Amino acid sequence: MNLFLQGIMWIFDPTHSDGSGGIPSRIGEQLAYTFGAVAIASLVAIPLGLWIGHTGRGRDIAVSLSGGLRALPSLGLLIIFALGIGIGFKAPLVSFVILAIPPILAGAYSGLEAVDRRTIDAARAQGMTEWQVLTKVELPLGFSLLVGGIRSGVLQVVATATLAYFASGGALGVFINEGLKTRNYAELMGASILVTALALILEGIFALLQRLFVPRGVAAGRIKDVRSRSTRPRTTVGSPIHEGK
């Protein structure tokens, strides 16, 4: 507990808030990696995931690809790109993009797959084109899971972005490394608290967004579905049951 308090005191020490190497600057770098990587990954993964979810083609390949990318070691990937591209901002960003693609891709195609097929058939029966089915039926109903995939990608990158230090990319990992080198455990604890707090804040924001993006009809449908599966006996109107017969 004493070490935790020392970490809090280190965070609020004014000397750690000034200049390009201060806490606000490092937090900005951490967020820049996070949202930059997720934005680029979304441009790749969302269209691909929507196509897979709508057509049903290539799903097995997408699942295998997502599993393979998730198995890649983050630090090893970062070092490979640092040696190939060079140290600085680009190498960590590219590696974080690769790490963010699998959860976003999975959220995109699983969101469309979760839509009731009867709803889609009804939309097609009304004369909707495939583009209209995708944009007006499947995407709105599956948007919550898509946001969930983006949420997972954000959390994965914001926690991993501390490794950017190994490619001279800055971020909060600078403080963690300095704390380890100098055995300044207050700095080490303070940086760890900042990373954890940042992840929790982003988790709360995206959890709220995920709830807000659930259409009212879908939420009502879930309640009705739960009620329809209730094990309580139902009274049959007009058909009384007499005991002893």
From TrEMBL:
Transmembrane segments: 33-53, 65-87, 93-112, 154-176, 188-209
Keyword Transport: yes
Annotated localization: Cell membrane; Membrane
GO BP: any one term: transmembrane transport
Entries under Gene3D superfamilies matching the protein: MetI-like
One CC-aspect GO term: plasma membrane
Domain ABC transmembrane type-1: 27-206
Record-given protein name: ABC transporter permease
Source organism of the structure: Subtercola vilae
Upper lineage: Bacteria, Bacillati, Actinomycetota, Actinomycetes, Micrococcales
